[in-house]
Structure formats: structure tokens, C-alpha cells
Amino acid sequence: MTPHRFLLRLLVAFCAAAASLVGAAAHEVRPAYLDVREETPGVFSVLLKTPMQGDARLALSAAFSGNVVKLTPVVSRPTGDAMLQTWEVRAVEPLEGQAISIDGLQNTMTDALVRIEFLDGYVWLEKLTPGAPGATIPASQSSWTVAKTYVSSGIEHILLGFDHLLFVASLMLIVRDWRMLVKTVTAFTVAHSITLTFATLGWATLPSAPVEVMIAFSIVLVGTEIVRMERGQTSLTISWPWVVAFVFGLLHGFGFAGALVDLGLPRGDIPLALFSFNVGVELGQLMFITAILTIVAVAKRFFTIPRQAVIASAYGIGTMAAFWGVERIDAMLRVGG
């Protein structure tokens, strides 16, 4: 077997394994979310969102270290691929200074985002992990803490946003000139920064479910353009990739905004939080691009990457994105029905 033929088979096998792995692990890598909001002095509404695995949810529960009394029973409601649980509590002792934890998180592979909003507008955010399933609620949060939290959340969102990364990878397969690559990635960045800001501030909104479907099929479209280019054909995407990157970047920005809306923006620090999240998204994107370029550069030192490998990659990307699109349409129809 020739090196080129071996590389091609290896690439196809990798794409198939990646699709299977992403589909199987999707439920486990989705983070849990705990939202606690002070409605009246000392009374808080609680929402716990946990990922579903089939018909069962992850066995997670919220716990406070101080005297917190449950006022209403827990109401559970499945929604798509998650379970929503809501109830109300009264904090006999102030929440500030108490430890909050997600019991059962240590037995999973997922993280949990905790958001607590007080009547005075103070918002505390913290990411809990299986290794650190609890944290102490501070009396206040510095600007540095806000910036660090939102930068970290932005990086995590883009690096776990396989659809966004796959779109960027598709653009990199079309654009071979580094100057045009910089121009294309910049156009994508500017575009999704615009809609991320507009959607988060409520200036422009789109329903999240159709947006996720369109994001998936935007990847399919770019995947087909890779095949056309390798066949010697031309199109707007091939000739002017930065224009297409900008247009679809506007769409992807609404997808980023969904995560930021879930996080919420702390009153008094909205510009800082929004800017920090955007910075985190861009840092994560640059990390991914750097990693891909490094891998390609190292590979080229040992062998010439065959044209068939690029075409196989395009088919793998398109197949995976089409699967996501169909899956999201099915979820949207089930929720609507």
C-alpha cells in the first residue's frame, strides 16, 4: 500500500471515528447550569439544568452549606436534551460567605456553571468541575474576576463548539494563501462579534434552534465548495472567501450569543463582560487555527499531503455537519410538537 493511499484511508477512518465520538460524547461534555436569582429579600428562585443521556438525566443536585429552606417542591420538565428543575428557597442566613456545590458532579465528565444574581444587581459566576464541585460565594466580585471568568467562558465555548471549529477548518481548507487566510478569519471574527454584541444586548435576536440548524448547513455548504475547488471549478466562496466568511460569521455570532445569554451579564460590568467573552472566543479560535497550521506544517516535513486527502476531509466535514443539521431539525420538531 502506498503512503498516499494509507494516509487517505487513515483520514477517512479518523473522520468516521470523530463523528461517532462527537455524537456519543455530546451529552457528557455539555455543561450543567445552576441559576439562582433573588426575587424578594432573602427569597431565591432556583433553576438547575442538567444534560440528558437518553431518557435519564445526570444525577446532579444543588446544595448550600448554610441554612437554606426549600419553599416549594421541585418541578421537573424535560426540554430537548436537558432536564430543567425549578424551585424556590429562603436563605435564613445570607448566601454571601456560604459554600455552594453540585452534588454528583464529581462522578461525571462535565462541568457546571453557577450564576447567582442578587437584588442589588450583584452577579456572581463560577465554573465548577468534577475535581472542584463546590465554591464559596464571595461578598463582591472584582472587575478582574469578571474579566477572567468571561474570557475563560469564551475560550471554553469556542473550543467545545465543534460546529464553529469545523466551519473555521473548512475555511482553512479553501484558503491556502496566508494573506487571504488572515483576511478571511478577520472577516469571520468581525462579523460574529457584531451579532454577538447585538444579540446579547437585545438589539437583534433570532430563535436559537433555527440558528443552530443554519450553522450546521453553512458547514455543509463550505464543505461542498472545497470539493468544487479541488475539481478546478470556481465560485464566490472560492474567489471571495472573506465575503462568505463575513456573511456566515453574522449567523455564527447569534450562536455565540446563546451561550452568553445563558451566562448573563453582571449589572455595572456589562461592557467588560461582553468584551471579555469576545476576547475569549477569539483566543480560542486563534489557538485552534495555530494548532491546525502547526500540525499541517509538521506533516509537510515528512510527506506531501495528497489531493485525495483534502477531498476526503471535505466529505468527512460535510457528512458530520449534515448529521448535526438533521439531528437539530429533529430536536426542533420534537420540541415544537
UniProtKB/TrEMBL annotation:
Keywords recorded for this protein, A-Z: Membrane, Signal, Transmembrane, Transmembrane helix
InterPro entries given in the database record: Put_HupE_UreJ (IPR032809)
Domain of life: Bacteria
Transmembrane segments: 158-175, 182-203, 209-227, 239-261, 273-297, 309-326
Signal peptide: 1-24
Source organism of this protein record: Mesorhizobium escarrei
Pfam family, one: HupE_UreJ_2
Name of protein: HupE/UreJ family protein
